[in-house]
Amino acid sequence: MEQTRITRLGQKCLILLAFAIVLVSCKNEEKIPEETVSVVEPEELYEFGFRLSDYVVKRDTIRKGDSFGEILQRNQIDYSKIFQIAEQTKDSFDIRRLQVGKPYTLLCSNDSLQQPKCFIYQPTKTDYVVINFQDSIHAYSKTKPIKFVEKEVSGVIESNISEALAKQGKSVLLAYKMSDIYAWTIDFFRLQKNDKFKLIYTEKYIDDSIYAGIDNVKAAYFQHNGEDFYAFEFETDTVRGLKDYFSEDAKNLRRAFLKAPVEYKRISSRYNLNRRIALYGNRVRPHKGTDFAANIGTPIRATANGTVIESARRGGNGNYVKIKHNSTYSTQYLHMSKRKSKVGDFVKQGDVIGYVGMTGNTSGPHVCYRFWKNGKQVDPFKQKLPEAEPISDSLKIKYLEFIKPLKVQLDGIDFISPIEEELILDIKTGSDNSITFSK
Predict the structure, then answer these.
(1) How far apart are CA 342 and CA 378, in angstroms?
(2) Which phi and psi (to 5°) does residue 75 adopt?
């Protein structure tokens, strides 16, 4: 009996002890401060200078048959208001210039009505036009901020330079830019296996993240047939913004004329005074130009600095531009879909003066490039064309100092081997191909 009483007493003590532990534990938990949770507010999104959260944002592209008025009418803007907007903004932007396929944005009231307050049209990736009618009616044009990012690339030629760049996921435009830089130095149609190249170039990004293409090549190195060719871009005329490419010893790499007026070049018909055409009964019909086949809309570039002396549409020439370069040389560019230069414009070598088309007498899209020397049309490929202007003695010292760090940077770039190019391509495309290296 006594033993039972002691056992029950022990059980009560154990229960009291456990209860005491629970109490102490609860008190300790009360002393632990609550964890502070920080709430991160979402970053406000701005575009075109507007805070997007203030509006209902509607995005679309201009479709065939669309007009400024029809777009607004579809979005509950009455005709009288549309007419008022068009009248008050006509000096800033012609609403008839909307192009099919170009994007536009409507900023609408952030309520159940979703009434349009602002129309934004983007003719290019970087440029936009704002037609604002939420308070007062006004229109203005702006350019999105562009960030330039410097990049490097190198490679070893297996078959051609485009393939070497493509294996690294690089734009073929770099190949075209290199072929222009070295047009009078290296024949890119006769590259040798194991020729090597390095490039320092810049890419453009809109709003820090949207890729907008290649900007320019700052410096290049090409090893062809064991010979080294350096090229550095340098501004020789700050007033007119003239730039050119020079070697490491300040020699100009260009001639006064580019070899072709289009980057995507394929000669479909050469200068030929004895050409016979079956369509005309196999009679001799001299062809005094050089035809470069290209897709409609391909930019046509001035092959040398000069002044536009003709810009018109006439007969078999279609839309054309003619440029006088000096007292000896003039060039003409036929069959354009659209002209971009007008009489009196000074154009620099490489400036876009129009776009490839099929206007006038032509059976396919191309630009007919005509070349005058002393008032007579000649074959540009058979002329001993003048050198481009050399660096002046006063600028030569500045140039040599300017290229020093670029040459050090070029020399420090390692060549990417064909095997490394394949690995880079596999990574970019998500391929799981493996390469086994044997001793």
Answers:
(1) 25
(2) -110, 35
Q: 48: which 2 tokens?
A: 């075109």
For 134, phi then psi, to 5°, come to -85, -30
**Helix runs in 385-417, H state only:** 393-411
Say how many C-beta atoms besides its own lie within 10 A of residue 237's C-beta. 14
Q: Which of 293, 290, 243 is nearest to 264 (CA)?
A: 293
The sign one gets for the Cα dihedral 355, 361, 364, 369 is negative
Query: What pLDDT sits at residue 271?
Result: 77
Token pair belonging to 105: 């944005």
Q: Give Cβ neighbours of residue 262 (< 8 Å, ≥ 6 apart).
A: 292, 294, 298, 299, 300, 301, 356, 367
Distance between CA atoms of residues 126 and 212, nearest Å: 8
In a 3-state reduction of DSSP, which class is residue 71?
helix
CA distance 389 to 254: 9
Q: Are 255 and 228 in contact (CB under 8 A)?
A: no
CA–CA separation, 219 and 403 (whole Å)? 9
**Pairing of β 329-339 and β 318-324:** antiparallel
Alpha-carbon span 60 to 165, nearest angstrom: 35
Residues of the chain with pLDDT under 70: 1-43, 264-265, 274-284, 417-439
Give the per-residue pLDDT at 389: 76
Per-residue pLDDT tens over the stretch 278-311: 555 566 577 888 899 999 999 999 998 899 999 9
Give the Cα separation of 405 and 429 in Å (integer): 35
Q: Is the pTM of this model over 0.70?
A: no
Gap between the Cα atoms of 312 and 305, Å rounded: 20
Q: Is-contact 378 384, C-beta < 8 A?
A: no
For residue 120, which of 148, 88, 95, 147 has the smallest C-alpha distance? Answer: 95
- Given the structure tokens 């002691």, which residue do they identify? 6
What's the first-to-final CA gap in the chain, in angstroms? 90
CB 322 within 8 A of CB 308: yes
* Burial grade of 119 (CB within 10 A; 0-12, 13-18, 19 or more): buried
Residues 161 and 196: their CA atoms lie apart, in Å, by 9
Question: Among residues 279, 331, 284, 281, which one has the least CA distance to residue 305?
Answer: 331
For 91-116, give one letter per residue: b (16+ CB within 10 A) or e.
Answer: eebebeebeeeeebbbbbeeeeeeeb
